[in-house]
Amino acid sequence: MILGAQKCGTTALHYYLVQHPQVSMSQPKELNFFIEELNWKKGVDWYRGHFDPEARIRGESSPDYTAHPWYPGVPERMHALIPDAKLIFVVRDPVERIRAQWIHNYSNRAQDKPLAPAVVEPGSTYIPRSSYAMQLERFLEYYPLSQILILDQDELLGRRRESLRWVFRFLGIDDGFWHRRFKSLSLETANRRRRTPLGAFLADRLPPRLWRRVRDRPPFSYPFEHTEMDDGLRAELAAALGPDLARFRELTGRRFASWSV
């Protein structure tokens, strides 16, 4: 189970795991099965049908599993069905993650406000999704830390072979496997365009392959400025996230020295 966090490289990791011959990853990537408000009501048979029953390892990647408190009850449902699952929580610099989430939301027309007021707005998901300790602690009530791998996106970017070997070893599969596609990495955030109203209407109505072919063309989308954060906003977010991230470092025993917070 790749739990998230959103905009931390879950799509890339899912893609890499697809290449491994001992792994069956779900299609689509985000099943969101353990979220009651989304797909839980479809039942276990629906969920089981997304995996190859002969595969040694079966997996999915749903970043909304770490979107507490908007989707409560995920760890409880997950543990009731798959108590022996291995969980992977991919993280990155929490302030940069917030900016990437805003770009994602703005490009999809899920957000209309500029960066600064949007990410500090009370009741928004930006700060909670970067509150890694708060999200992890919910799963630690049901799963021991030995069943959870914490992976920093910087590791996946800068030390991919070593990081994938670490992931494969954690999953108990051939950690010497390498594929030429492991060299590729699609950084979606860097190339994001804002959907037009027509694009937003068609995005969930066209077949996925067709939408991927046309989404970056007029009249479906247009380029927009990927706003940078000023020092004041960075300081405000660092202050809001500081206590949680101190707890996260204590929980994981890791420094995350490259992070800005």
What does this molecule look like?
The chain has twelve helices and seven strands. It has a three-stranded parallel β-sheet with strand order 1-4-5. A two-stranded parallel sheet has the order 2-3. The protein has helices spanning 10-19, 44-48, 74-81, 94-107, 115-119, 126-129, 132-140, 153-158, 160-171, 197-202, 208-214, 231-252, and strands at residues 2-4, 23-25, 57-59, 87-91, 148-152, 194-195, 221-222. The longest helix has 22 residues, at 231-252. The chain is globular. It has two domains: 2-190 and 230-252, Rossmann fold, CATH 3.40.50; 193-228, no CATH class. The model has no long low-confidence stretch (mean pLDDT 95). By secondary structure, it is mainly alpha-helical. 41% of the residues lie in helices and 9% in strands.
Topology:
Layout: E1 2-4, H1 10-19, E2 23-25, H2 44-48, E3 57-59, H3 74-81, E4 87-91, H4 94-107, H5 115-119, H6 126-129, H7 132-140, E5 148-152, H8 153-158, H9 160-171, E6 194-195, H10 197-202, H11 208-214, E7 221-222, H12 231-252
Parallel strand pairs: 1-4, 2-3, 4-5
Antiparallel strand pairs: 6-7
Helix pairs in contact: 7-12
